[in-house]
Specification:
Blueprint: H1 16-21, H2 28-31, E1 46-47, H3 50-61, E2 66-69, E3 81-87, E4 94-101, E5 120-125, E6 128-133, E7 143-150, E8 153-159, H4 177-185, E9 192-193, H5 195-201, E10 207-210, H6 215-218
Parallel strand pairs: 2-10
Antiparallel strand pairs: 1-9, 2-3, 3-4, 4-8, 5-6, 6-7, 7-8
Helix pairs in contact: 3-5
Length: about 220
């Protein structure tokens, strides 16, 4: 993660900060947890795909310039399905990663302990935890993470492009914390989703392929 001693830092890569940071997920019970019913029936019972998640992002935030499957949330465990969407150009745009997992690790973080690699970690809604790491000037812009629990499902959203100088709710982010919460709480963002989401995801004109989980990684979602 961003705040460990230099000798212990992970090799720089888009996945590296998140791989360590995702140890937060299992302790969401310490920050609040809820079962999220779906009174609208929008969630559906079709196994979710990276493309379906990208479509939900486009419905919530507008169509991105591109989207692709990603394994940047692999530390959430087997069965994780995730998508990385990019808004704007490759050079000047910003990315957001959204994923769901049935098998997140547990016991690594208590938001009130201060014994973690985050500058802060706060519950912002029932079962929804916001955590962030502030910028290291000329090295790292910082990262904003949001984790939500839906029964046995963990939803993770993160973005890293704008310098984080304090509470992300007070920073002019490309995607606001409020929008991140709404995205995570969308009933279609789960291990199963609607047939509409899967069908729409299969025909996205901005989809670029990328990583796709194999059968052994998704079999539990069904």
């Amino acid at each position: 993660m961003h705040r460990r001693p230099a000798a212990a830092r992970l090799a720089a890569s888009p996945a590296a900060p998140l791989a360590a940071a995702l140890l937060v997920v299992g302790a969401l019970a310490g920050c609040g947890e809820q079962s999220s019913p779906d009174p609208t029936g929008a969630a559906g019972d079709v196994p979710v795909t990276p493309q379906a998640l990208a479509w939900v992002v486009s419905e919530q935030l507008g169509a991105p310039g591109s989207a692709e499957g990603t394994d940047q949330l692999r530390d959430l465990g087997e069965g994780t399905v995730a998508t990385s969407v990019r808004f704007g150009s490759a050079r000047r745009g910003h990315s957001l990663v959204l994923g769901v997992s049935p098998d997140a690790p547990t016991g690594y973080l208590d938001c009130s302990s201060g014994e973690n690699f985050f500058d802060d970690c706060q519950e912002v809604a029932d079962g929804v935890t916001l955590a962030w790491q502030e910028e290291e000037p000329e090295e790292d812009p910082g990262v904003v993470y949001l984790f939500a629990t839906k029964g046995d499902t963990t939803v993770a959203v993160y973005q890293s492009s704008t310098p984080i100088t304090g509470d992300p709710r007070e920073v002019d982010l490309p995607v606001s914390v409020e929008a991140m919460v709404e995205l995570a709480q969308d009933p279609r963002v789960d291990l199963t989703t609607s047939q509409e989401a899967v069908d729409a995801g299969a025909s996205l004109d901005f989809w670029r392929g990328g990583y796709a989980p194999g059968p052994t990684e998704t079999e539990d979602a069904g």
